[in-house]
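Try it yourself: sequence plus glutathione, in.
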Amino acid sequence: MSGKVILHYVNGRGRMESIRWLLTVAEVEFDEMYLTTHEQLQKLISDGELMFQQVPMVEIDGMKLVQTKAILKYIAEKYNLHGKDLKERVMIDMYSEGLMDLMEMIMIAPFSQDPKPKLDNVQTKAKQRYLPVFEKALTGPVHLVGGKISCADVLLLECTLMLEEKFTGILADFPNIKAFQGRMIQIPAINRFLQPGSKRKPPPDENYVKMVMKVFNL
Ligand code: GSH
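Structure, out:
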């Protein structure tokens, strides 16, 4: 790898958090450049660093990558977390896209004027639409696809931890997912990431919401 991986985003979860998770599981060291003002974002844009004038942006292997899903796929491919063939990859991508849809609903809720109905909807959809898929997939297998850890497993762990933060006990009816979580958090890199002081970001609070509004001029 040429040079250190550098993440450009705000100091919070948002769309970058899944990238932090995947790099962590791949055991790739990374540094972070936090945007704290709108001017810093403008500077990246005027310097031509952001293809679509948006972050996340990740400096890796001499490239400046944007688009969260493309970045995740690059890391997953590079570190052997994206299946062994086309059929495994499409399964990993389907699971991953579903999880990202669900996490995006959680991610945007704090920016709503009235988050409560949004979160109620997330909880219902999580229980009725998303979690049953993963509960079924994990009936027997230890991992979602191909008998080994993939990007989809990492996103599932991230997503279920996010859900539990918001909705205590939400996994009570999903024993296979709960057991999966228990196994995943034993992985040393994940275990370290879950300890205080790691690069994992805390759940968004009022200050985070204000900072995001300022940086992105919302
Ligand atoms: N499809 C892009 C991705 O998944 O990376 C969306 C990126 C995106 O919406 N980024 C936000 C942003 O840069 C911050 S989370 N907003 C500024 C803008 O769109 O002008």
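One thing you can check immediately is this: The chain has two domains: 5-79+193-206, 86-187.
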